[in-house]
Every structure is written in structure tokens, then in C-alpha cells.
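Good morning N.,

You mentioned wanting to compare the apo and holo forms, so I went ahead and generated the holo version with adenosine monophosphate. This is what I fed in:
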Amino acid sequence: MDSYFSIRMRASYRGLHVSGAERICKEKELSNVIFELLKRPKKYDFISLKTEKIEDVEFISPLPVKSFFMKSVEEGRTFAKKLLMDFGIRKDIVDNIFYLISTGPYNGRNMRGAMLIDIDTGERLEENQEKGIRTIKVDWEDREYASNVLSSYPPLRLTSRSLDALALVSKNVKCGVLAEVCWSDDPDYSTGYVVINGIYHRIEPLKRVGDPFGGRAYFIKAKDIKDIINCLRERAFLIKV
Ligand code: COA
Ligand code: AMP
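and this is what came out, ligand included:
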């Protein structure tokens, strides 16, 4: 049987991270995929392409998606907070996470990965608050097919970014992340999401265009932290529609 490889690309310009992407593919597709990722960042002065053989790939379904279109950022955030509170997370914990994401979760700056939050106490559990924790080793089994199927229902309006986010959160839930909230740090991208009860709630807008702050928070049970970090970094998942 053909081996699988994870290919991870990251690019920066003048010391700032500008693009990152991951694919999981069979050995015979490696050179095409590397070429595709090499062409992806529009502008860079540094690019890293990492390939790593994967011993075991697990196939899972994507989370179901619900899309919500709100009149304003305030309405979007109120709705997102309500989802998390109805799920059982304390209001002060939710308020604090929204404050951190909207003002820069690492001392007023964006992080390079996600915050890990104790769902019961709100304590931040990540070892390094600048780096956070990044989910890797996840991709669509057939990205084009998934995009066609998932975009065929117009209210979903899934962009390629939401497709990436959907793959990521589908893995996170399998790894034991109980709830998640995110909006991008890209000033041009105002859509965000909340995951609760294994459902991806896509919410537009969760921030105003031009706002440079964003971030991700994974709510977990503190006792599970070791297994969850190991799963997020080590277990490989292909998402199959
Ligand atoms: N933001 C900012 N800096 C980043 C970064 C990010 N998203 N990803 C990598 N870097 C920089 C950091 O400086 C990092 O150092 P650190 O580990 O101290 O934070 C450095 O690059 C080295 O990163 P590396 O270990 O090579 O990255 P990785 O193997 O963890 O891979 C990416 C991470 C690039 C794959 C990931 O960030 C990414 O962009 N993933 C795509 C997400 C996605 O859409 N997945 C779904 C696929 S369908
Ligand atoms: P993005 O949606 O790519 O703009 O990312 C939003 C935020 O999520 C970033 O500011 C990081 O803090 C965090 N992040 C980026 N990549 C990952 C990842 N692979 N896993 C977890 N968190 C990430």
C-alpha cells in the first residue's frame, strides 16, 4: 500500500507569518502537492516546506455545518457567546475569552496557535502563551469533491478558508476538544465560528473588516490535556464526505 505524507508549508515576509497550509497525500502525489503549496503564498521572502511520512491515517466525517448571518459584529458576538454559555461554559469565562481574542491573547498580540482553556475554571493551560497549540496532520480526502458537495447548498457559502477550518475542527472534536471559538487575525476576513455539541456554527460577522486581532480558543477538560495535545500534534486524520 502507498504511504501517506503530511506536507506543511509556511511562508513569511519581513519576519511576519503570511501563509500556512497543510496537505496529506500519497507518496506518488508528493511532487505535485509540493509544487501546489509552493505557488500558494502571494508574496514571501522565506518559505518552508516540510514533508513527514505518516504511519497511520484515520478517516472521519466532517462536522455538520450551520451558517448564521448577523446584522452587526455585536449581534454576532452576542450570539456566539450565547451558544457557548448554553453549552454550559460560565459567562465570566466566555467574556474573558472574547476579550482576549479581540485585544490580542498574547499580551495584546496575536498568538501563533490556539489557547487551551480549562472548560470548568477558565484557566489557560497552554505551556507557551505566544505559541499556543497548533492542530496539524489533517486534510480532506478529496478536497475538490468535498468543496463541491459542501457548497452545493447555497446558505452554507463555504469558502476555501471555511473548508480548512471545518477540517481542523472536525479533527479537534475527535481529539477531545469540547467547544471552540475562533475568528481570524486577517483584517480582511470577518467570518468566525463556534463549535459546540459537535456542530460547526459559522457566524458572519464576528469582527469588523480592518480589525487586526483574532485567535482560537479550545475548551477542554484539564485532566485530558496530555492526550489532547498528543492527538492534535500526532494523530493524522483525513476528512471524508
Ligand atoms: N501563525 C504564525 N506563525 C506560524 C504559524 C501560524 N499559523 N505556523 C507556523 N508558524 C511559524 C512559527 O514561528 C513557528 O514557530 P513556533 O512553533 O515556535 O510557533 C514556526 O513557524 C515553525 O512552525 P512549524 O513547526 O514548521 O509548523 P507546523 O509543523 O506546526 O505547521 C502549519 C503549522 C504551517 C501547517 C499551520 O500553522 C497551518 O497553517 N495549518 C493550516 C491549517 C489548516 O487550514 N489546516 C486544514 C487543512 S484542510
Ligand atoms: P487564522 O484563521 O488562520 O487567521 O487563525 C486564527 C488564529 O488561530 C491565529 O491567530 C492563531 O492564533 C490560531 N491558529 C492558526 N493556525 C492554527 C492551527 N493550525 N491550529 C490552532 N490554532 C491555529
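Residues 160-174 form the longest helix (15 residues).

Happy to go through it together on a call whenever suits you.

Best,
F.
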